[in-house]
């Protein structure tokens, strides 16, 4: 939106930043309390192998790669959905009006496929993969930060399975240690 302060945007990618994402998620939580029949999901994406690009090829190439990833992620969104860069190589998606677990996991699989397609950075091909933590039915959460916490727990579960996986949060995974 044109009237959003620049501080709400990630300066590198132009995507919404953490603050704006949490605000949008809080709004989705409020809508969900009014319309509990409408599910939404949060996907937390971490790029596997990004640190190697930054360390081996330099921060400038890493920044160029992050910009390319941001463009590709935005292109894959439906109109009501949004993606934000939370920092480093972490991106979060707010997926509105999901039909349930199968719909959210199809979206996660598509995002992983988008990320794994080679990128061209400074004329050279670069390959990545990603891991995604998924939280469904986020409207049952009292606060947006709680949703991100559980998405991070699910992301840890996805990473434990290796690169290129997604994991749906389950209460059995438990909250992270305090």
Helices and strands in order, then pairings?
Layout: H1 18-34, E1 39-48, H2 50-57, H3 59-75, E2 82-87, E3 90-98, H4 101-116, E4 119-121, E5 124-126, E6 129-136, H5 144-160, E7 166-168
Parallel strand pairs: 6-7
Antiparallel strand pairs: 1-3, 1-6, 2-3, 4-5
Helix pairs in contact: 2-3
Summary tags:
single chain, 178 residues, Alpha-Beta Plaits, two-stranded antiparallel ribbon, 7 strands
Tell me the strand percentage band: 15-25%
Q: Based on helices, strands and strand pairing, what is the structural class?
A: alpha+beta
> So what's the CATH class?
Alpha Beta
Order of helices and strands: HEHHEEHEEEHE
CATH homologous superfamily title: Reverse transcriptase/Diguanylate cyclase domain
List unreliable stretches of 5+ residues.
none
Could you give the order of strands across the largest sheet? 2-3-1-6-7
The overall number of domains is: 1
Mean pLDDT: 88
Radius of gyration: 16 Å
In the CATH hierarchy, the architecture is 2-Layer Sandwich
Approximate shape: globular
Terminal CA distance:
36 Å
- Major sheet: 5 strands, mixed
CATH third-tier fold name? Alpha-Beta Plaits
Q: What is the number of strand segments?
A: 7
């Amino acid at each position: 939106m044109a009237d959003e302060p620049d501080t709400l945007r990630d300066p590198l990618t132009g995507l919404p930043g953490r603050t704006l994402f949490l605000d949008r998620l809080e709004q989705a939580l409020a809508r969900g309390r009014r319309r509990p029949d409408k599910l939404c999901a949060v996907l937390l994406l971490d790029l596997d192998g990004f640190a190697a690009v930054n360390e081996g090829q330099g921060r400038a190439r890493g920044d160029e790669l992050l910009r390319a990833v941001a463009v590709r992620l935005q292109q894959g969104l439906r109109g009501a959905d949004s993606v934000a860069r939370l920092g480093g190589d972490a991106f979060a998606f707010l997926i509105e009006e999901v039909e349930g677990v199968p719909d959210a996991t199809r979206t996660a699989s598509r995002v992983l496929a988008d990320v794994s397609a080679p990128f061209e950075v400074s004329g050279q091909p670069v390959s990545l993969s990603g891991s995604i933590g998924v939280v469904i039915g986020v409207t049952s959460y009292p606060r947006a930060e709680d949703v991100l916490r559980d998405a991070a727990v699910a992301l840890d579960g996805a990473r434990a399975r290796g690169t290129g996986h997604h994991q749906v949060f389950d209460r059995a995974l438990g909250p992270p240690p305090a």
